[in-house]
Design a protein that fits this description.
alpha/beta; UDP-N-acetylmuramoyl-L-alanine:D-glutamate ligase; 15 strands
Length: 399
């Protein structure tokens, strides 16, 4: 009987604790007049930064948080603080963000959602943050173990982030019927942004960020226009935005003996094959590949076996014909090379070291003349080390 009483008492205290936590969370959330959340497969960090920058230029006191290659809190003055995690990312981080937001008395919170599983997405977006605006950037094949392999199923995962009475923005080319169904069910409004939106702006404006994709800028302009932000302020914000660590960047550096000019492309954060294909197509349009050997560097992660399989299928299907040579690094490197050896006509290599400087020596010894080296696959681990090395020795190249 006593044990039953103690168990019941503990359960009662736990329920009271949860109710108090819920009340505090609700109060802090209500103290933030404008809450914007960003979900999708790619471009979340970039759009979070773009919108926050536009709102700052318009005079908003805004706090932003990204969870990309280097998760960071961006304060109202534009200063950034990297989020140091002891373990895996957790949606409980959002409690801290709401606490900071209340302390700083911000007017707007722009936050990149981190959840993959539908249940976590619902808890993070609907129950914890309850945004008035939700942005779905795109639907690409990634995290297939958690989100299934079809785009329709991936889209279905994202709709769990839609709260009641919310305005949901999605690019026209990324629309799925399930978005409209879910928005209607939640009494929310779905806004599709046309490919031709702001066409005159892209044709006439100078000094656009070279590292940003047009669709990211288009979405950001649509959201800020919806909020009544002056167009000139929004344009200033876009031009002054600080790029995310994982955004598309290019450097130049001489390598080899005799030395030849190399272009070093950080496409690691694109992760999936479809997004990487878009990166390459964008660079081709800007004539970056003209007169140079195109070399791939594919970083593979042990905990992303689904991505390795995706890359294997894409390479077998000839999805990346521009590469003459591909270098593999990571846990699945030898296995992937064996799988591709019989079908792939390109020269395939497995790198023997993970030291960035030695890697560049090893690669440049096998490539003669001018070259473009494209980093792909995963930013985590080796990818981050190599990008930091390129950033320290190379000269930024405006694409």
């Amino acid at each position: 009987m006593r044990e039953l009483f103690v168990t019941g008492l503990c359960a009662a205290f736990f329920i009271i604790y949860l109710l108090v936590e819920r009340y505090i969370l609700s109060q802090r959330r209500q103290n933030i007049p404008l809450r914007i959340c960003v979900t999708g497969t790619r471009g979340k960090s970039s759009i979070t930064r773009l919108i926050a920058s536009c709102l700052r230029e318009a005079g908003f006191v805004v706090l932003a948080k990204t969870t990309g290659s280097k998760p960071a809190i961006i304060f109202p003055d534009g200063e950034e603080k990297e989020i140091k995690r002891r373990g895996s990312a957790s949606i409980l981080e959002e409690k801290k963000i709401l606490k900071i937001s209340t302390k700083l008395q911000i007017q707007a919170l722009v936050l990149e959602l981190m959840s993959i599983h539908p249940e976590n997405s619902y808890a993070e977006s609907v129950q914890m943050l309850n945004p008035q605006i939700l942005i779905i950037t795109n639907v690409r094949p990634d995290h297939l173990a958690q989100m299934d392999s079809s785009k329709e199923e991936i889209a279905r995962c994202f709709v769990s982030s839609i709260p009641e009475n919310c305005t949901v923005f999605v690019p026209e080319e990324e629309f799925f019927p399930v978005f409209k169904e879910a928005a209607g069910r939640m009494n929310s409004e779905l806004v599709q942004i046309s490919r031709n939106s702001y066409k005159k702006y892209f044709e006439s404006e100078q000094n656009l960020p070279s590292f940003e994709f047009e669709e990211n800028i288009r979405l950001s302009l649509a959201v800020t226009e919806f909020l009544g932000v002056d167009r000139e302020a929004a344009l200033r914000g876009i031009k002054r935005v600080k790029p995310d660590f994982g955004s598309l960047k290019v450097w130049t550096k001489d390598f080899g003996s005799p030395p030849h000019r190399w272009h070093l492309v950080s496409g690691f954060a694109a992760n999936d094959t479809e997004s990487t294909r878009r990166v390459l197509s964008s660079l081709q349009k800007k004539n970056l590949f003209s007169g140079k050997e195109i070399v791939g560097l594919l970083n593979l992660r042990r905990d992303r076996g689904d991505r390795t399989i995706q890359w294997m299928k894409a390479l077998k299907d000839g999805f990346f014909p521009e590469f003459q040579k591909i270098f593999f690094i990571g846990d699945h490197a030898h296995a992937l090379k064996r799988k591709l050896r019989s079908t792939e006509k390109k020269e395939l290599f497995v790198l023997k070291t993970q030291a960035p400087q030695k890697i560049m020596v090893e690669i440049s010894n096998k490539v003669k003349g001018k070259a473009v080296l494209v980093g792909m696959g995963n930013m985590g681990g080796f990818g981050q080390d190599l990008v930091e090395y390129w950033e320290s020795v190379g000269r930024a190249y405006d694409v």
